[in-house]
Amino acid sequence: MLVDSGLVLEGGGTRALFSAGILDRLIENKIYFKNVYSVSASAYVALSYISKQNGWSRNALLNTVGIRKLFSWWNFFTRGSVYNTKLMFYRIPNEILPIDFDEFFNSGQRLTMSMTDLRTGEPVYINDYKDKDYLMDMCCASNSFPVITRTRFIDGRPMTDGGMADAIPIRRAVSDGMKKNLIILTQQSRYRKKLKTSKLITTRYFWHRNFVKTMRERPYKYNSDLDFVEELVLQKQALAYYPEISLPKLITRDPVKLNELYEHGYEMGKKVVEEVKDFFEIKGE
C-alpha cells in the first residue's frame, strides 16, 4: 500500500535504530509512504525502507562488520572521520549487504535528504538521484557531522550534517503539501535541547559565519520544531512517536544497547501500524 502522505524521520546518530525498528514493522505490513523526509542517520535507515528490505539497517550496522569497525576514534585519526565512510556508505550497501537499488529507484516513493551548506548555513534538500553512486554520496554528505567527520563537497559546495540546519524536516514536508504526516523522533517526548552552542564547532568553523549563526540558533529552532510537531498532533494532522526507554549517546558502540533500541522500536511498531492504518485510512493490506 502506497500512502500519499509524508513520513518524517529525525536523525540522531545510532539512535536511528529506533526508527529502523518501526520502519521494519511498516515493511512487514506493506505500508509505504510515498514521500519520505530524512536527515543524517535517518537517511541511511530510510534506504532499506524504500528498497523493502526488512532488517537491513540492523544487519548493516550490527551484524556485518560490527559497530566498532564502523565508528571509532581510530577511524578519525587515520581517515579524518569517526565513521568508516567507505565501508558504511559504499562497501556495505554495494558489496557486503547489497541494497536493492532497482527496487529503490522503481518504488514510486520519493526520498528527500537534507544537508547543511557550510557557506550559507541553510538546509539543502535533495530528492533527485541520477544513480546509486550519487544517492550514496548524498547520504554520506547528510551524515557528515561537524568536527568528527570530513566536510563533503557536493557540486563544489561544502556540506555538513543535515541535522545542523533542519534536524526534524517536518516544516519541509508541510511546505511540500503534506496534509498528514507520520513523524518518528529519536529523543524522548519531553526532551528539549539546552540553549547553548558547542564552542568546539563555532571555533572550528569560525570563518563560516553563516553556519556559526545557524549553530547558535539551532537549539531554538529544534525546540520550536518539537512544539510544531505537538501542535500538528493536537490538530490531528500528524502522528508522532518517541522512544520510551533510556537512550544511548549520539554515537554508541555498544551493540547490546543498540539492539535493545532497535527491538524497542520494532515492538512499538505494532502500535504504530494499527494507528497508521486508522489515521491514514488504509484499507486492505
Fold blueprint:
Layout: E1 2-9, H1 16-28, E2 32-39, H2 41-50, H3 56-63, H4 67-70, H5 73-79, H6 85-96, H7 101-105, E3 110-117, E4 123-126, H8 132-142, E5 152-154, E6 157-161, H9 170-175, E7 181-184, H10 199-204, H11 209-234, E8 238-241, H12 255-279
Parallel strand pairs: 1-2, 1-7, 2-3, 7-8
Antiparallel strand pairs: 3-4, 3-6, 5-6
Helix pairs in contact: 1-2, 1-12
Q: What do these coordinates show?
A:
With 285 residues, this protein is of the alpha/beta class. It has twelve helices and eight strands. Strands 1, 2, 3, 4, 5, 6, 7 and 8 form an eight-stranded mixed sheet that branches. Helix 1 (16-28) packs parallel to helix 2 and helix 1 packs across helix 12. The radius of gyration is 18 Å and the shape is globular. The relative contact order is 0.19.
Oligomer: single chain
Helix content: 40-55%
Radius of gyration: 18 Å
Report the average pLDDT across residues.
93
**Shape estimate:** globular
